[in-house]
């Protein structure tokens, strides 16, 4: 095992220091609230769908559910997005879609998240409805209108096109670029 760190980039001290000083500059209390999170990403004034999505992302990053993202949670989030293995990311995406937390994703949940992501990313080749139907058509093995975590991960890992689509659609690395560079992106 040794002292192998699992931090963003090469996990070097200067890089960690960069993240830490950036985090503390943006967030002197050491606790990032949802409001500050949106401000940091330049995502205030979104429509309700977009707001909902950002809140979901925030809640998932807020590992101890105290309503704030602290530095360790922040680093864990960055780490997952940059370095996470694909099945870790898929589990994370699943958690993001499973709005009611019942362990299954239904069409309504997927549709509302995808609509929200479109509101933020603004680019897509298909409508939220088409996307949702296609996903269920491809991976809802037992056709019960719900996806379990297992169906979701197996289905996406089996289908390269779907994997690429999901990864591209829900890619949070542009969010991280904003955090790293400290500038808001202009679309």
UniProtKB/TrEMBL annotation:
EF-hand domain boundaries: 49-84, 85-120, 127-162
Domain of life: Eukaryota
Keywords: Calcium, Lipoprotein, Metal-binding, Myristate, Repeat
GO terms for cellular component: photoreceptor outer segment
SUPFAM superfamilies: EF-hand
Record's keyword annotation contains Cell inner membrane: no
Keyword Lipoprotein: yes
Gene Ontology molecular function: any one: calcium ion binding
Name of the protein in its database record: GUC1C protein
Lineage of the organism: Eukaryota, Metazoa, Chordata, Craniata, Vertebrata
């Amino acid at each position: 095992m040794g002292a192998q760190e699992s931090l963003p980039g090469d996990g070097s001290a200067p890089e960690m220091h960069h993240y830490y000083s950036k985090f503390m500059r943006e967030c002197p209390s050491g606790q990032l609230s949802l409001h500050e999170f949106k401000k940091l990403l330049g995502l205030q004034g979104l429509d309700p769908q977009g707001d909902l999505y950002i809140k979901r992302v925030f809640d998932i990053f807020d590992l101890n559910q105290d309503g704030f993202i602290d530095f360790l949670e922040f680093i864990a989030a960055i780490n997952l997005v940059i370095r996470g293995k694909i099945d870790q990311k898929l589990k994370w995406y699943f958690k993001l879609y499973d709005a009611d937390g019942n362990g299954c994703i239904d069409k309504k949940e997927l549709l509302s998240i995808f609509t929200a992501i479109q509101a933020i990313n603004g680019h897509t080749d298909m409508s939220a409805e088409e996307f949702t139907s296609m996903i269920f058509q491809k991976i809802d093995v037992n056709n019960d209108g719900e996806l379990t975590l297992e169906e979701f991960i197996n289905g996406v890992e089996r289908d390269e096109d779907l994997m690429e689509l999901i990864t591209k659609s829900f890619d949070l690395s542009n969010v991280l670029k904003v955090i790293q560079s400290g500038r808001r992106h202009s679309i």
